[in-house]
C-alpha cells in the first residue's frame, strides 16, 4: 500500500462527505449485490492493488466493467457479506483525494461444512478524482489485509 502522503489542500465539509459517501457505497454495493451502485463508484479505469494474500492483481489500470465482473464472480458465491468501514483520514491534493479506511469484511456461506465464516481485517487506500457535478470516483484501490480469522478455505471455493 503506498505510503506517500499527498500535499494537503482544504476542502469544504460537503466535498468531504461526498468523497466519504463513495467509499461507503463501494462496500454497500458489494453487500447488496447492487452492481450498478458499485460500478458508479469507479472511474473508467482503476488501479487495483489487492493484498497478495488475497489474490494477484496486475500493475495496471483495469476497465471498470472488468472490475465489476470480477466482483460479481467473487462475491456472489457467498450467501452474505458485510463490509464495515471506518474512514480514518481524507486528504485532498491537486489530483483529488486520498482516503484511508479501516475495514472488517465478513464472508458467509451457509453450505460450508464446519466454520461458515471468514473475516478479514485491514486497511484500504482509495484515490478519488472529481468527475464533475460534485461527483467523485475511485481511481485507485489498494488493499492491505492485516489479519483474518475463520475458514479461509471458503474463499477459494466456487
Structure at a glance:
The protein has 158 residues and is an alpha+beta fold.
Overview features:
158 residues; alpha+beta; 6-stranded mixed beta sheet; 27% helix
Folded structure, characterized:
By secondary structure, this protein is of the alpha+beta class. The protein has a single domain, classed as Roll (Nuclear Transport Factor 2, Chain: A). Helix content is about 25%, strand content about 45%. It contains four helices and six strands; from the N terminus they run ααββαββββα. The protein has a six-stranded mixed β-sheet with strand order 2-1-6-5-4-3. Strand 3 and strand 4 form a beta hairpin. The protein is globular, with a radius of gyration of 16 Å.
Low-confidence stretches: none
**CATH architecture descriptor text:** Roll
Alpha-beta content class: alpha+beta
In DSSP terms, counting alpha (H) and pi (I) runs of 4 or more, how many helices?
4
Supply Rg. 16 Å
Could you give the order of the helices and strands? HHEEHEEEEH
- Termini Cα gap: 28 Å
Strand content: 35-45%
Main sheet specs: 6 strands, mixed
**CATH fold-level name:** Nuclear Transport Factor 2, Chain: A
Query: Overall pLDDT, averaged?
Result: 90
Strand elements, count: 6
Query: How much helical structure, as a percent, in the residues?
Result: 25-40%
Reading off the top of the CATH hierarchy, the class is best stated as Alpha Beta
> What does the overall shape look like?
globular
**Strand adjacency order, main sheet:** 2-1-6-5-4-3
How many structural domains are formed by the residues? Answer: 1
Amino acid at each position: 500500500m503506498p505510503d506517500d502522503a499527498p500535499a494537503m489542500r482544504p476542502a469544504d465539509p460537503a466535498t468531504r462527505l461526498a468523497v466519504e459517501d463513495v467509499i461507503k457505497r463501494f462496500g454497500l454495493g458489494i453487500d447488496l449485490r447492487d452492481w450498478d451502485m458499485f460500478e458508479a463508484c469507479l472511474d473508467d479505469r482503476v488501479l487495483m492493488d489487492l493484498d497478495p494474500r488475497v489474490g494477484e492483481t496486475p500493475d495496471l489500470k483495469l476497465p471498470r466493467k472488468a472490475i465489476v465482473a470480477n466482483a460479481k464472480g467473487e462475491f456472489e458465491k457467498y450467501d452474505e457479506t458485510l463490509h464495515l468501514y471506518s474512514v480514518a483520514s481524507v486528504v485532498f491534493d491537486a489530483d483529488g483525494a486520498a482516503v484511508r479506511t479501516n475495514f472488517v469484511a465478513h464472508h458467509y456461506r451457509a453450505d460450508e461444512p464446519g466454520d461458515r465464516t471468514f473475516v478479514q481485517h485491514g486497511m484500504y487506500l482509495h484515490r478519488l478524482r472529481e468527475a464533475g457535478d460534485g461527483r467523485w470516483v475511485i481511481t485507485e484501490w489498494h488493499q492491505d489485509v492485516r489479519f483474518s480469522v475463520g475458514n479461509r478455505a471458503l474463499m477459494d471455493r466456487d
